[in-house]
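forwarding from the other thread:

> can someone predict this with magnesium ion?

sure thing
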Amino acid sequence: MALLEIKGLKKNFGDLKVLKDVNMKIEEGEVLVLIGPSGSGKSTFLRCLNLLEQPTGGEILFKGKNILAPKFNIVDYRKHVGMCFQRFNLFPFMTVLENVMYSPVHILKKDKNEIKEKAMVLLDKEGLANKANVYPDTLSGGQQQRVAIARALAMEPEMMLFDEPTSALDPELVGDVLNVMKDLAKDGMTMAVVTHEMGFAREVASRVMFMDGGKITEENKPDEFFRNPKNPRLQEFLSKVL
Ligand code: ADP
Ligand code: MG
């Protein structure tokens, strides 16, 4: 069974039809990369996956259960799906360590000492152990984004959603964040990633999808996707970004 299965997903904002019949399966351990022009619905799609937006129609099955069903436990579901945005949204009045510890302690009610140890392991993995006790505004954008990833991982999610996690960063800071994401993929995390980092897509993705006008119009393994794009809109898009 797929970890996530999306069937006929639709999202309207008033008269604006943003997602029109999106279908896909994400297997456990897969890294799905989603690319597409601005305004094509990529962010809306990710936001529907963790219910920051209420879909207008269709089904989202997590381990076979429809997360849109009236009795589905949304609060519990969100604990299993981590999200990382373009803007990092760290709590400015908390230290790096307090940011990472906050949700496991306050939402999962985990033991503080145990979580502190785990948070330090996560920060260490990202090369930020020496920043544990500083405040976010003293860090570079790339460091803040890595803290945001550590904060999401501290919840031990089964899946991570990334919405253009490097597009607000200065170019020289992008690599460190992508490396953290690559390590995560190697460790077997299931990931859905919206990005314009085509090198990352080629190297890490299990499949790449092209979203255009609220639909997935092409999908393939990365090698074939980039070498032999079929859809004319995708060909045009790739000629601009590659
Ligand atoms: P992408 O991430 O691919 O650039 P988005 O999902 O952000 O695209 O947006 C797709 C379309 O939906 C755009 O036309 C955008 O203006 C519109 N949209 C997104 N969020 C809202 C909202 N909350 N209310 C109204 N329109 C929205
Ligand atoms: Mg977007």
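The pocket of magnesium ion (ligand 2) is lined by residues 42-43, 163 (CB under 6 Å). thats all i got for now
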